Amino acid sequence: MNIKSLVDCEKSKWEKIQLPNTYKKIGIGLAVFSFVLLFINASTINNIEYREIIKYGILVGLLITSISKEKIEDELITKLRMQAYSFAFIVGVIYTLVLPFIDFFVDLIIKADEASIKDMGDWNVLWILLSVQVLYFEKLKRTHK
Fold first, then answer.
1. What percent of the chain has pLDDT over 90?
2. Which residues pair with 68 in a beta bridge?
């Protein structure tokens, strides 16, 4: 198997995962709707179960937005998308490693007897990965036009 056929095979696998462009609007709509519901829940009902469901609605909306095709999907868009995924991964790892220590030192200053290093939740990590990818990809597209 030569390099070109390997690249074509991987490209075809990626294209199978991608959703059509119309899903991008659905994903953005779901993320925004869930975000609004999160504020409504926090200000009125304050139900913990609803909050968790709504938070995962935001993640699903961001994921749909992240894997939706652009109207014109060419090599430049694919390259920018992969750069955004790489950048989001690096930011996510740094965020996950640094934030528990920042929280610890703030807790140490405010309430020293209760200070401990807390683990990052799955929602926080996924939210930072997906939101950074979507926002950075949009920024990269705008700078390359």
1. 54
2. 19
Cα separation, 22 vs 142, in Å, equals 20
Secondary structure of the chain: what % helix, strand, coil (to 5)? 80, 0, 15
Task: Record the pTM.
Answer: 0.82
User: CB count, 10 Å around CB of 72?
Assistant: 8
Using pLDDT thresholds of 50, 70 and 90, give the confidence band for residue 73: confident
Contact (CB, 8 A) for 141 and 77: yes
- C-alpha span between 70 and 43 (Å, rounded): 36
136 against 106, higher pLDDT: 136
**Which residues, at least 6 apart from 19, have a Cβ–Cβ distance to it below 8 Å?**
64, 67, 68, 69
Nearest to 41 by CA among 54, 27, 29: 54
